[in-house]
Amino acid sequence: MNFLSKIFNGMGLLGFHGFLFLFTLGLISTSKDLALLITLFVLLLGTYSMHLKYKDCILSAWEKKYWEFHMVNVIGLLFIPCYDGSDKESSVLATTLLLMLFFVVIIKILIILITMLMDKISKNNKKRKKRKRYLDRRY
User: Fold this and answer.
1) pTM for this structure?
2) Within the chain, what is the greatest distance between any pair of CA atoms?
3) Domain residues of the chain, as ranges?
């Protein structure tokens, strides 16, 4: 494989990885569909377990195969002042990002469940009030 095709493959994987990351963040922030968020939760759990087993994200490993630069390095260099891009630091940063997404999805699922519960409680209270008014009129 020549040099240019390696760079373009690496850049393509980097762009795809970035798109997946941003799409996941957008999906978490805008979705109110519980089934979709639970699916995302399971996918993040699977990704985290693969990360623990292989010590690296699969997309990052592919990016490293074609190019030295990968998505975790982009995030690290943009947002962390003392980031040097070593394998250990990129692994720690990738684990941190996965756990952050994981906990944000858990919090979003809990918010949706609590909202559903509160709606159900308020509907039951309205039914009780209607029933009480009906019974009060009868007697």
Assistant:
1) 0.70
2) 90
3) 3-138
